[in-house]
Specification:
5-stranded mixed beta sheet; two-stranded antiparallel sheet; about 170 residues; 2 domains; alpha+beta
Length: about 170
């Protein structure tokens, strides 16, 4: 997801280009990303605005089965050149910002990776009502009851439950 923006940087501020993105995202290419991005020449660099859809894979937080989900996000980031396109002089972009390299290549990979992380649910679920697994035997409860009590008895809580029963009397 690299775009040569040399020509766009030579054009006046406000010049725009649109690109369609369709390819792997992430270091191993495990996620597929699709979308459109609009690049706008600003007074400081290139503003990238886009809408993306990403197919992600993971494990359900409750039952541990493999989950494939589609998430979407809107990206808006400014990229700063490290070399002036007209003079070839080295520029000093703000620290910790996304940069356009020495060859005027704008690489979207890191920005998209960060947005994927932010858009991915904290607890990925195979379905909203996933019952999870039995805490005693590990049986997947979506496939039926395993015959164990819904909660195993934990003797560490006996004093607390005893005090609770006495206070109700």
């Amino acid at each position: 997801m690299q775009i040569n923006v040399a020509q766009l940087l030579k054009e006046p501020v406000g010049a725009k280009r649109n690109y369609e993105i369709d390819g792997p995202a992430g270091e191993n290419g495990e996620n597929s990303v699709k979308g459109n991005i609009k690049l706008t020449h600003t007074s400081r660099g290139i503003l990238a605005e886009g809408r993306f859809i990403v197919d992600i894979k993971g494990s359900c937080s409750r039952c541990l089965t493999e989950v494939k989900k589609q998430i979407s996000f809107i990206m808006e980031e400014e990229f700063f050149p490290v070399i002036d396109i007209a003079s070839g002089a080295h520029l000093h972009p703000p620290p910790d910002e996304l940069k356009i390299d020495d060859n005027h290549i704008l690489d979207l990979k890191e920005a998209i990776r960060q947005y994927i992380i932010m858009a991915t649910p904290t607890k990925l679920l195979c379905r909203p009502d996933c019952p999870g697994i039995c805490p005693v035997c590990g049986h997947e409860l979506a496939r039926g009851d395993c015959g164990h009590a819904s909660r195993p008895h934990d003797s560490r809580w006996d004093k607390l439950t005893q005090s609770e029963k006495e206070s109700k009397i």
